[in-house]
Amino acid sequence: MLGYIIRRAMFSLVTIFLVSILSFAIIQLPPGDYVDSYIAQLQATGTPVSEAEAENLRARYGLDEPFVVQYGLWMRQVLRGNLGTSMQWQRPVREVIGDRLALTVVVSLAALVFTWMIALPIGIFSAVRQYSIADYIATTIGFMGLAVPNFLFALVIMYIGWSVFGLNVGGLFSAEYELQGWSFGKFVNLLTHLPVPAIVLGTAATAQGIRVLRNNLLDELRKPYVVTARAKGLSETRLILKYPVRVALNPLASTIGYMLPFIVSGSVIVSIVLSLPTVGPVLLTSLVSQDMFLAGAIVLLLGVMTIIGTFLSDMILLLIDPRIRMEE
Amino acid sequence: MANEETPLLSVRDLQTHFYTDEGLVRAVDGVSFDIHRGKTLGIVGESGCGKSVTARSLMRIIDPPGRIIGGSILLRQERNDGSGQIDEIEIAELSDTGQDIRNIRGEVIGLVFQEPMTSFSPVHTIGNQIVEAIQLHRSMDDRQARERAVELLTMVGVSRPEERLDELPFQMSGGLRQRAMIAMALACEPDLLIADEPTTALDVTTQSQILELMQDLQEQTGMAIMLITHNLGVIAEMADDVVVMYLGQVVEKGTVDEIFYAPKHPYTKALLRSIPNIYQPSRVELPTITGSIPHPYNRPSGCPFHPRCPDYMPGTCDVDQPQTVTSKTGQEVRCFLYTEGAVRVDGSGNSEKEERQWSHTS
Amino acid sequence: MADKEDLSRKPDEPRDPDIARPEATVGAGADYNADTEAARQIGTEGSEAEDRVAVATQFQLMWWRFRRHRLAMIGGIVVLCFYMVVVFADFLAYTSPQASEAERSLMPPQRVYLFDDGSFNPHVFGLDSRRNPQTFQREYFANPDDKIELEFFAEGFEYNLLGFIPTNRHLIGTRDREIGESVFLLGTDVQGRDMWSRLMYATRISLTIGLIAVVISIILGVVMGGLSGFYGGWVDMVVQRVMELLYSIPTIPLWMGLAAAVPDHWSILRIYFAITLIIALIGWTELARVVRGRLLALREEDFVMAANLAGASQFRIIFVHLIPLVLSHIIAAISLALPAMIVAETSLSFLGLGLRPPAVSWGVLLQGAQNIQAVAITPWLLLPAIPVIVVILAFSFLGDGLRDAADPYGM
Ligand SMILES: Nc1ncnc2c1ncn2[C@@H]1O[C@H](COP(=O)(O)OP(=O)(O)OP(=O)(O)O)[C@@H](O)[C@H]1O
Ligand code: SF4
Ligand SMILES: [Mg+2]
């Protein structure tokens, strides 16, 4: 068991390392660097910038060094908790995305909770009543959920909310709380705003979850131990909940591992459409203006967050599946 | 099969069919037999002939798309108020999820089957699963039920039962698991134990230990056993009465002596010929039954055995279904060789054929 | 006795209900004989013929099983229709997708009347515009006196049908009016461009980009999966790690980063290919996973061993002998990968990181619907969402049916 945990942890560390390289590489991709676009921007507003000033800027950000050195510089700062300065906002990256990152976690977790709340009962139901009308409906809705791209779903919900109910369903806070510090009222306000992004983000994962659970459960329902349990005289409901569902949950728990990247990925686009105060919209603007430290930090943090989440879900799996626990 | 006492369970003309996408499978197609208290009924037949489906029909645990579409399964139970009154329960007519059938499962009929690997839930301890079986039918608290579970494991010869209870199935060997399975099936002292190929997955030594265990337990409790197997040796050792099945039908039925020393149906004879015999000269190829079992969706016309039968009579066997004939001793056989007045197109005499066959087997 | 010999050979034959040839189990003796006879002959004809038989029956089986999935069949037909639009986009459009006119900004869709006084005479009414004095918005009203009659296979702007047949025929035209200035079946966007015609061209771009991307990712997937699944060992290790990495991190931010790096000043064509390449990178992992899994299973089969012993090169074994056997699975995986690619393009373009105007794709069209408050007033700007959803659903059903048909027992 300890061996398993160590192996998983090692794997996560290696993945984090690779993600950091990828994030940095992405930032290096655009032709020209931030100083170019910064200068262009200044010049457009009528402020001339001299060569010397430009060089100065480049030196400050280490933009003249080779990739490896720049990466090394960046990582050393990151490991010290310094994510650099956003050139676009002229503020430390940590300040720019601190709250937003926390809200991204909140939104992703809300989506995950939503996913499970819906996927569990529907998945169980459609496996137990295979080929019933309800099963077909659930399967079809599941298909729709998988098929409709997140951002379109968000658009359609926004549209319906606005044109039918006259509501702006975007955002995570009402206007009066938006700029306030944290308070109980703000927290409650957040809770009332969470369902829409949770549903939009969670639907595809839910559809996936229903499918996985249904298939696992259909497999499990045919296993001899179900017959054994039935032959004891157990009632159908108790039987299904105690045995096949319990066994089918394990693979489902492991799907958190791949749902999380999926949800976090989706949250970026959905946040932009729903104008959520998460890192999504900031990532888009930072990419467009080539604000490398900001974009790099966001890609890196999203990756790290997901990897940690996946690691935690593996640990949960370890707790609930005695087979893994024993074998190691 | 002459048994004066009223049987514990009487199955009459049972039909269980599967409505699959590919077509109708008549897995059990008109099966009748009796099971008596304290006796063992053996059921033999090739793979796919409907043995397991018959057994599961008795407990109403047929998987969809299967359904019992006809026949009766009559269970006779002494009322437990001491009056000696016998209640008759028609199992075939109960709802398969209702309270009535659940009172029978585990309490009156216990089930043990082939796959000791998979017949326990992999994520619950053995103890959890046995205790559950006890508490379903006995009002015992957790401690009492656990004591009972220890008692049961001791009874089936599991060493260190206390520790075993907290183990998970995959930590136990196949033989141990099968013992635990039997313990669980016997948790509520059922009147009938259905053992569906209980030893097929085990090695020979373990096999005979398990069989002995079942015999001992039968002596102790007086329960009836319905033993399903491919292995005629097991039947010879264990069974009192034998039912031979082919393609969902009973082709022959008799006492164990009748089946082994006076088999009538060509299929039974073929089965018997295919078991190794110590009196046989060595290095002689064992005769096998020619051909293989027809596909369940394409049941042959007439006598289902006719494409493989050495005594096949064209014009009769492939046209009509033979009816069951009962001898004076109660041995039953379903074959035109024994029906009187059947048309013989090939003109050969019944007795002559009989003679030839007898000389082969003896 | 000959009879018995044949019967006893029966058990070697497939007993699987799905594989058993129908005639194999119909009756007794005679049929069995014919069948085994045929089997024996096939067996002696050498391995190439055997391969062909195996592949043919595999596809036949796949088709039989596929036909039973009604939804998948419908999905297939819908997908076909969409690709007809791709081929005939300029025939179906009636005006240039770029023709803009501020005067015609945000016109609502026109209602089409099929009958005129009981006789078939499709027509629409011209729209008069007026500025609302309060909101300063332009408002449009149908003018019942301004009847514009439509005709089919009418003349319009010049184009090359199928890319090489010069013509000016279009599905829809008007009798006596300049169509680009009078007919707006699905309304116009902010710049007054006709939505219907734009939608036709957008369909062409979005669906071909998906198709090209899928071809690239098949090549990537088959090569990576093929190498990984066949050689195993460290090659497999490396490919597996890369795939695991891509599965365990949120990839959209990565693709956004890549797409953002495509320079603005590139030509439409270069951007198109750059975006296609990025999208292809998104999809190859799944294909590689499928190919690898199947190959790992097949690698153990006898005939691979035989080919190995016969000295066939590894490359030949993978790409000549094995890939054809995996083909059905690849096809199924493709039809599941395609919708993902289409979504990827649409999302990137929607965010302004993919194709950029003047290119028209579904994503580019949907950019016009980013501001929801505005869309609430001009809902037809959301119309391009419908083909996106429909085609993705159709592909999903099709792919699901194909996958079931290719591998009825699950992977
Ligand atoms: N769930 C099911 N769906 C469809 N057909 C089934 C199902 N279960 C059993 N059958 C069919 O019923 C027939 C009898 O099966 P059964 O399991 O009773 O055979 P068996 O005699 O127990 O064989 P074995 O010795 O292999 O256990 C088979 O032909 C099988 O195809
Ligand atoms: S009825 Fe005919 S075919 Fe059937 S077992 Fe008897 S002799 Fe053989
Ligand atoms: Mg069986």
User: What average pLDDT do the residues of chain B reach?
Assistant: 81
| Morphology call of chain C | elongated
**What portion of residues of chain C belong to β-strands?**
5-15%
Number of strands of chain B: 12
What can be said about the biggest beta sheet of chain C?
4 strands, antiparallel
**Beta-strand fraction estimate of chain B:** 15-25%
In percent, how helical is the residue content of chain B?
Answer: 25-40%
CA distance, first residue to last residue of chain C: 44 Å
Q: Most extensive interface: pair and counts?
A: A-C, 52 and 42 residues
> What Rg of chain B, in angstroms, do the CA atoms define?
22 Å
Helix content of chain C: 55-70%
Shape call of chain B = globular
End-to-end C-alpha gap of chain B: 23 Å
Task: Output the CATH topology of the largest domain in chain C.
Answer: MetI-like fold
Q: What low-confidence regions of chain C span 5 or more consecutive residues with pLDDT below 50?
A: 1-54
Tell me the quaternary state: heterotrimer
Summed over residues and divided by their number, the pLDDT of chain C gives a mean of: 70
CATH superfamily of the largest domain in chain C: MetI-like
Explain what this protein looks like in three dimensions.
- The complex is a heterotrimer of chains A (328), B (362) and C (411).
- Chain A has 328 residues and is mainly α.
- Chain A has helices spanning 2-28, 34-44, 51-60, 67-79, 93-128, 133-147, 150-165, 175-178, 184-193, 195-221, 224-231, 236-242, 244-273, 279-288, 292-320, 322-327; strands spanning 85-86, 91-92.
- A two-stranded antiparallel ribbon of chain A has the order 1-2.
- Chain B has eleven helices and twelve strands.
- Chain B has a domain at 260-361.
- Chain B starts with 8 loop residues before the first strand and ends with a helix.
- With 362 residues, chain B is of the alpha/beta class.
- In chain B, helix 3 packs across helix 4, helix 3 packs parallel to helix 6 (174-185) and helix 4 crosses helix 6 (174-185).
- Chain C is of the alpha+beta class and 411 residues long.
- Chain C folds into two domains: 72-86 and 197-410, MetI-like (MetI-like fold); 101-191, no CATH class.
- Helices cover 59% and strands 12% of the residues of chain C.
- The chains are: A mainly alpha (328), B alpha/beta (362), C alpha+beta (411).
- At the A-C interface, helix 1, helix 6, helix 7, helix 13 and helix 14 of A face helix 7, helix 8, helix 11, helix 13 and helix 14 of C.
- The site of iron/sulfur cluster has 13 residues of chain B, from loops.
